[in-house]
Amino acid sequence: MRFDSLVMPDQVDDSGKEFLIYRGDLECNIAPGNKQHKLKYHLQKALSEGCQYVATFGGPHSNHIAAFVARCQTLGVMPLIVVRGETWAELTPTLRTAVAAGANLFPCGRQDYRLGLASEMKQIVDAYYSDVYWVPEGGAGALGVLGCLDWARVISQDQQAEGAHFCVASGTAVTASGFAACGIDSLSVFSALKGVSNLAEDIQLSCQQAGLQVAAKLTTFDECLHGGFGRMSKELLVFLQTLYRLNPNILLDPVYTSKMVYQVYQMEKKGLWPHKRTLFVHTGGLQGWLGMKTDQQPYGDPVRFSC
Ligand SMILES: *Cc1c(COP(=O)(O)O)cnc(C)c1O
User: Fold this and answer.
1) Over the range 281-292, which residues count as b (16 or more CB within 10 Å of their CB) and which as e?
2) Measured by CB atoms within 10 angstroms of the end CB, which terminus of the chain is less buried, N or C?
């Protein structure tokens, strides 16, 4: 398993602080990162029920869609995808890859999209295809948590992770719940969303629904900065460029891991980060750079992140 040390900007050698990163982004060349783990038990269930079609929901640039399509292709089931937003003049790179891999797309207005499994679009899809197994957006739910629990166990039981304080970025809190329950001592969770009501409560609830308990001492950072989900600020961009110069083999994603690492850096600089040995979990998502504007690319042309 690959763990790298991460050099932080202005880090002083005698600080006694150590920053590590578990390279979930390098786990496999199709669909690396956390999404395949969230999907694992969902797709197993779809196969065991003999479903020919597997459907899900996702945004036009989402890592979930990228991973979903890649896994479906490997398993030989046809992916059906309800995509957030009305029709488009041009498909995003993520959706182009999906179509090339044999996915059928269903553009869905935001209002109906928000209803998820209760949406009208789901009924429409079900009326056209029989035998559809539905995966909730992002691979959420108890099965998603259990897949992440397996992942968290494997990472945390590696010798290199010993004694580390874990850091995980969060959207739906499903991934973080797997880590919270895996038996590690302490965990910080960083929300990528704006205005999350209570991340700690969400983690409690997700664990409970999966029949698990939060075992780690948990610290949550509920407020995402830099303009909210999927937005990039100038200062974050500058930080990523500096970090990249110091760690030319480590690239972070725009939505989740970059904001987490930056937040820890800021706290460390102010003397507010107490942990001696910090382990960031890289949850992948580099293909997300394809959805960012050309003046928001710290790593140059994002075409190399195409799936
Ligand atoms: C989806 C995603 C997350 C968040 O996972 P949740 O289980 O929704 O909290 C974190 N990092 C990356 C790169 C992601 O794509």
Assistant:
1) bbbbbbbbbbbb
2) N
Taking the complete model, does pTM exceed 0.85, yes or no?
Answer: yes
Query: Is the Cα dihedral 20, 260, 220, 265 positive or negative?
Result: positive
Taking a C-beta distance cutoff of 8 angstroms, is the pair 5, 18 a contact? yes
Report which residue type is found at 227.
G
CB 34 within 8 A of CB 24: yes
Helix (H, G, I), strand (E, B) or coil at 5: strand
pLDDT of residue 228: 80
Measure 128 CA to ligand 1 centroid, in angstroms. 31
Over the chain, what is the mean pLDDT?
A: 94
CB 147 within 8 A of CB 178: yes
Please tell me the least confidently modeled range out of 208-217, 222-231, 244-253: 222-231
Residue 168 CA: nearest ligand 1 atom is 10
What are the two backbone dihedrals, phi and then psi, of residue 105, each rounded to the nearest 5 degrees? -105, 145
Distance 282 CA to ligand 1 centre (A): 10
Cβ distance 46 to 139 under 8 Å?
no
Instruction: Report the separation in Å between the CA atom of 270 and the middle of ligand 1, taken as the mean of its atom positions.
Output: 27
Query: Distance (Å, rounded) from C-alpha 282 to C-alpha 295?
Result: 24
Question: Strand, coil or helix: what is 253?
Answer: coil
Give the binding-site residues of ligand 1, using a 6 Å CB cut-off.
33-35, 38, 63, 138, 169-176, 253, 256-257, 283-285
Q: What is the pLDDT of residues 233-255, one digit of tens each?
A: 999 999 999 999 999 999 999 99
- Rounded Cα distance between 8 and 73, Å, is 38
Locus of tokens 């979903």:
68
DSSP string, 232-273: --HHHHHHHHHHHHH-TT----TTTHHHHHHHHHHHHHTT--
Q: Give the angle 59-210-257 at the CA atoms, nearest 5°.
A: 45
* Tokens read off for 140: 């959420």
| Atom 13, ligand 1: residue with shortest CA distance | 285
Q: Is the separation of the CB atoms in 99 and 105 below 8 Å? A: yes
CA of 16 to the centre of ligand 1 (A): 30
